[in-house]
Amino acid sequence: MRDVTIRRALLSVSDKTGLADLGKALAGHGVELVSTGGTAKALREAGLAVRDISDLTGFPEMMDGRVKTLHPVVHGGLLAVRDDPGHVASMEAHGIGAIDLVVVNLYPFAQTVAKGADWDEIIENIDIGGPSMVRSAAKNHTSVTIVTDPADYARLVAEMEAQGGATSYDFRRLCAAKAYAATAEYDAMIASWFALADQGEMFPPRLSVPLRLGQSLRYGENPHQQAALYLPAFAPGGTLADHRQVQGKALSYNNLNDADAALELISEFRDGPPTVVIVKHGNPCGVATGETLAEAYRAAFQCDTVSAFGGIIAVNRPLDGATAEAITEIFTEVVCAPDADDAAKAAFATKKNLRLILTGPLPDPARTGMTLRSIAGGVLVQSRDNGHVTRESLQVVTKRAPTDRELEDCLFAWTVAKHVKSNAIVYARDGVTAGIGAGQMNRRDSSRIAAIRAREAAEIAGWAQPRTAGSAVASDAFFPFPDGLLAAAEAGATAVIQPGGSLGDADVIAAADDAGLAMVFTGMRHFRH
Description:
- The chain has 529 residues and is α/β, with parallel strands linked by helices.
- The protein has three domains: 4-198, Methylglyoxal synthase-like domain (Rossmann fold); 235-358, 3-Layer(aba) Sandwich (Cytidine Deaminase, domain 2); 387-521, Cytidine Deaminase, domain 2, CATH 3.40.140.20.
- The protein has 18 helices and 23 strands.
- The strands form six sheets. A six-stranded mixed β-sheet has the order 10-15-14-13-11-12, with helices on both faces. Strands 18-23-22-21-19-20 form a six-stranded mixed β-sheet.
- α14 links the parallel β14 and β15 (355-358).
- α4 (72-79) packs parallel to α8 (129-139), α12 packs parallel to α13 and α17 (482-490) packs parallel to α18 (505-514).
- The two termini are 52 Å apart.
């Protein structure tokens, strides 16, 4: 494939970043600039000679700019096969000149939706002419160069400098691939908005998920696997989608997976007292509240000092120096915080491998959304688990009602259990997890493992008894038999929170009464597989 000299360029952009410099570079190669509306105005303000699109087509821009480039003179100039005699004859017969370069970026649809614009404004920000020109130019990339990203302007200029005002086929082919990806993403954003926001259809016949490469990762779950992070067009703030890494080596697949688990849990406490979450392999191993972040960190760490090594930490307050100093006492992979002060950053600077991620304000845990998980041959899609319970929604099912303190511990344990892999058992007392049992094949073993962790923590700390004594215990799903509940009672729990709904509820309630436990049903479960 031959090089193509750029003689005429059509520029029509919403994002004016770098436009003036690009226009000057093109003009320096003797390229005729054709443009529309605001783009033409910006180029003229930069002192450049510009031909209006209406001058090229012989028709004025009309209908508030909805119709300006949808014309045979434009698309004929883009789609004509330059070495096809019939196409050349048609161009000559109808006065159609070739367009060698198209520079287009599309109306800011996603940004318009994100700012909460009304329906009319959102509809007006659905670009029609732009995608049409992009697709026409990309289809005919053997003869036409298409650039859709301002980040590629410098590469275009460098290409023309190297090729004496022309572009190579390899460059045009690369640009065409990016162009179709851009229009595909754009159409997917619009389709998603129509289905989910406009029509309230969570599971449309065709699901379009616009994703853009955020970063390539060192490897996947294991070194022999490749991995990358893709970001959605519509994403709430305070998530890994828009994080800022302040220091540390590059994030891995496992780092991001664990950090996401930590952020999802800490967001449950975004409006609460200072809270610290420590996560290991996707499960919390310690969660605590305190008067200060430093106090909360010490308490969370003491829940499981073994598992905390090499863990992921998330906090619900801007990170301070005292907390950062405490964190640096052991090896930690990642710390996530809304922000960090200079003292905290200085403390972490001594640990070059520790990654510090700043998220900004944490997201609303009650937000809606979807989760996707691949299976062999397909993708499972569900609404995100944003369910929560309140004091008023709980049902006391035992003879003894929980005390106010027990009820607070029940709700705290329940919040944590929502983020523990099933089967999940969480003991908590005074706003601190006492023991966590995760991912077991039966609930009884989860109860026992959590109790073991609590005893080990007590031995390491030199406490007279484990924190499970006098604790509340949460189960993410119902107890099918009394054995799991009795294991919790043996560990010292005095109150229980669970969904209820088992065929064996009567037996479990009777066992709780015999053990003197207070138990409440939530009517909601939180499986997390």
